[in-house]
Amino acid sequence: MKRVELTPGKWRGLQILSDEEGKFRMMAIDQRGSLKKALAKALSIPQDEVKDEDVVKTKIMITKVLSPYASAVLTDPVYGFPYTMEYIPRDVGILLAYEKTGYEKAQGGRKTSLLPDWSGEKIKRAGANAIKLLLYYRPDGDPEVGEYQREIVRKVGEEAKKYDIPFLLEPVGYEIEEPGKDSLEYAQQKPKIVIETVREFTKEEYGIDVLKLEFPADLKYTEEFAHGEFDGKEREPAYDLYEVEDICEELNDTATIPWVLLSAGVDIEEFLINVEIATAHGASGFLAGRAIWKDAVPFYPDLDKMEKWLSTEGVDNFVRLYKASEEAVPYYKHKKFGNFANIDLKDRGVDWHKNY
Amino acid sequence: MKRVELTPGKWRGLQILSDEEGKFRMMAIDQRGSLKKALAKALSIPQDEVKDEDVVKTKIMITKVLSPYASAVLTDPVYGFPYTMEYIPRDVGILLAYEKTGYEKAQGGRKTSLLPDWSGEKIKRAGANAIKLLLYYRPDGDPEVGEYQREIVRKVGEEAKKYDIPFLLEPVGYEIEEPGKDSLEYAQQKPKIVIETVREFTKEEYGIDVLKLEFPADLKYTEEFAHGEFDGKEREPAYDLYEVEDICEELNDTATIPWVLLSAGVDIEEFLINVEIATAHGASGFLAGRAIWKDAVPFYPDLDKMEKWLSTEGVDNFVRLYKASEEAVPYYKHKKFGNFANIDLKDRGVDWHKNY
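Predict the joint structure of the above. Result:
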């Protein structure tokens, strides 16, 4: 196998984002809109009455208690990083979100914006180990919206290359014609949406280092779990678990770069199965947020109760995720690299410092 | 006490360079000239016949075996980093040297050059956690040479600020009128040379975050150790250990920023005492090279023997250094900061990302 070259910032970044086994056991606490929504519910107030302070306090508490268990923590530069950076241990990597929360509706699709006055340069300068971009994407959606979205990815990919920092893309599908994501129609579409999205962004031109992906099927629509096993609601099945495994396998065959699983707000029991199946079929770990800590939010503003829940149930969720991801593929064993010894520093040599 | 503000790159950098206690237990393997000299001796050849490969192999071996024991590793961008970066564990910080090896003689003094085609920008981009600059300096030397040297420090300080990365300065004294560093005259001068150097570079205008200092006296010239205790050579004493402790205390009173001790090629037994005295009087740890690993070099080119020595005696040296530095002052407890809770992120707030 031909040796694969990496620049030092990208390589070191991958080493730091993953744990000592090269597996990504990462926590996301970069939620903005969805966290405000959950806090509004906890406080029984409208979402626009949730104060910045409420979001900040929640993020501090979650980061403080749980980040020591993660190989890296993804946070946001508004309510997260500037308040929580000192609670992230020295041996836990940091990913910073580049996008503005939410999206703009356009031609039945969703357009992403980068956060104004924020940049890849600032992310690198601040000491983070990766740029993360959440991107709404439908490979079968409006072509103009698709190109708009891909152009943002290219731009961020170039910045990541310029500042020599890993780029993690989180493409998220959404409903266009379908009645919603929790529908038989969407469950049927989902494998294709996820896999075709991977086929696009796995291309070298985007400069992505790790893909953060939705589970490419919906367990609630499997024959095995369609009878309300997770939430008590009966659904019509779209596939069975064997088919879901094949879908994961196809996703993995399509991905030419390492990929990890996002939790998208599903409950921990469902997410554990997602992780087990995905990592058994080539995923390199997870970058999970709400599945780990969402049940702490309803305790807000009682910070003591939050802390108690996080340091017991929250930690337990993390421990279970480590177990569920035992088979995760170390990033350096992903087919992109083959094995650790097959990776080489780009321009290695005594003149490296001149050419870098 | 007024809160002290840090930018995120600097703060995170200090966290990563120091260990979980906030103490610096760092290893230097950035030697170029002095390592070539030692390899020439090991190979019984003239120094200019030592090959790049010999230096590289030695650095790989030392880095591989010993870096897991360090909180951070200082290496060089020529024979070190491009060959050893993948052997530095994810939880061990990296410092990169900025200077060209050696110096230029000028008006009885020594002028430092920065390594051509190398920069603070590249150091940050490559994923390092600090810029290190070795600077020959005599506070009482030729004024023109002094200003030349200080100007380099200012320039590097500005770069470190621009790229938001810690700046560690290593000022090293040298003989002008004295017959050599191993002389009664130099031993008598040394406290003043080190302390006056600290007085200069502790000034805010230089933007230095950590000083890497010579022990401000010479134990071989103390009444207690002047009778050949370290190397069998009898010397005339310049001071006793009580006076040496006072000298360290004075140094520490002068330093308004954290400082660590360098080993300057002394043997481990002497260095352990240096570290014990310095850390008992305010030093925040060590950044030591040859004292830890120099006895492995004579085994070259027998890499097996080198590895065996490093993984037994070398590791033992490290372990003893941890013990000798037990009283080291965590960087955040240095009087510059007071305590951890007294440090604040510069411009902390939901608009931080805009203003950063």
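Chain B touches chain A through 47 residues (CB under 8 Å).
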